[in-house]
Amino acid sequence: MTFEKQIPRILLIGIIWGLIEILIAPIIKSAQPALFGFLMPFITVIIILTGRYFVPSYGSVILMGIIASVMKYLLSGMVLHGAFMAILLEALLAEIILSIFSMNLFSYIFVGISVELYSAIHPLLSKGVFCQSAHFIKFKKLLVSVFNWDLSAMSRDVLSNIFLITHIIFGLLAGLLFLWIKKYLVSFTNRKEQKIHSVK
């Protein structure tokens, strides 16, 4: 399939990505504020890898990210260094990894971990903060409420490492989940091709 024929798919997946950022992200943030910073990049990884599966051309993820980020910026009134920049940089990271390593289990996990870790350090890049970011503070409160930990006895470095390791775990799980999803995508694609050939 030529790149020109893949443009409708790029537009569709980019729009879906943008709608999820605009409509679904606020719901997740409201329902699970402490986990939002882990769950949203998790979902983004699935969107990116699914998009690349259906549009395997180089640059496709970047184009999808541009569509999603522009939608987010125009329809949500976000600042440029917020979600707009985050979506673009996540798409760029994924595009580089998938262009170098192709679509395989290693690249799925690499994309998952990279997008999750970028989400963790995004406040540092955009606002010059890390341990004072809302995401990090909510994560500390989650540790207290779930595990009843005495955080005053922990150093900032230990908490930061726990925070980053949690992002890595979510990224790993996202990559493994897509491997499972891909099996169904392959089955769906094969059935669709068989129907086309049977009609011919």
H/E order of the elements?
A: HHHHHHH
Main β sheet profile: none
User: How many E strands?
Assistant: 0
Helices and strands: which structural class?
A: mainly alpha
Separation, N- and C-terminal Cα atoms: 18 Å
Describe the protein.
- The chain starts with a helix and ends with a helix.
- It has one domain.
- The model has no long low-confidence stretch (mean pLDDT about 90).
- It is elongated and about 70 Å long.
- With about 200 residues, it is mainly α.
Which helices and strands, and how do they pair?
Blueprint: H1 3-31, H2 36-54, H3 60-76, H4 80-101, H5 105-127, H6 134-147, H7 156-199
Characteristics:
200 residues, mainly alpha, 7 helices, elongated
Give a short synopsis of this structure.
Helices cover 84% and strands 0% of the residues.
